[in-house]
Amino acid sequence: MAIKDWPAAERPREKLLAQGAAALSDGELLAIFVRTGMVGRDALEIARDLLGRFGSLSALFEASLDDVVETPGVGPAKYVQLSAVMEMARRALLEQLQHRDALTSPDLVKSYLRLQLQGRDREVFVVIYLDAQNRVLRIHELFAGTLTQTSVYPREVVKGALASNAAAVIFAHNHPSGIAEPSHADEALTQALKQALALVDIRVLDHLVIGRGAAMSFAERGIL
User: What does the H/E/C string look like for 61-128?
Assistant: First the structure.
């Protein structure tokens, strides 16, 4: 039976309008995105196939074009739409960060960084430069490394902060393993960067480690 032939209260679009997006399952939300089915399979079945293949929405959004189009009923156009949705989400979060105090919006910072970093297959070190009101001036992917590590140079971090006229910074890096736990090297690096920036009167507010679906905060752990 096609979705259009279902009872109105069970159709994903009508359910969203009546109850809000939060009331829908991952499969129902994805079915709205997929929009149309194919012969013998409706949009919800295709959505469930995608979730079954990738295991989660986050894994789907991180997947490559070649992987996504292997699902029957999904072509390059759908992959383009998925990529556009992710980029719009990133930009919307960034707009909010540019107008809010990062210290009072830690979940917003984490959400942005998870969208930006959790799908990377190499370590990336990011610096968020903040003004005196802790609003985002600039977000810079300063260093990129290998599967397990990246080299970070305090001199370059200080240069970037001064060039951005930053009053404070937040650091972030991803763990491609998916485990959002800091290493001893991460802790030592954070302390070295904090000391270097203190010499030019720039505060380090946090260092976030991004894993799969999670973000660990040095400040919240009390190890900054």
Answer: HHCCHHHHCCCCCCCHHHHHHHHHHHHHHHHHHHHHHCCCCHHHCHHHHHHHHHHHHCCCCCCEEEEE
Amino acid type, 20:
G
Q: What pLDDT, in 10s, does the model give residues 29-55?
A: 888 887 776 666 778 888 888 888 888
Q: Which long-range contacts (C-beta less than 8 Å, at least 24 apart) are formed by 91-94?
A: 94/136, 94/139
Spatial CA neighbour of 154 closest among 139, 169, 167:
169
Query: What DSSP state is assigned to residue 21?
Result: G
Q: Could you give the CA distance from residue 224 to residue 201 in angstroms, rounded to a whole number?
A: 16
Between residues 124 and 42, the one the model is more confident about: 124
Instruction: Provide the whole-model pTM.
Output: 0.71
Q: Residue 171 forms beta bridges with which residues? A: 127, 207
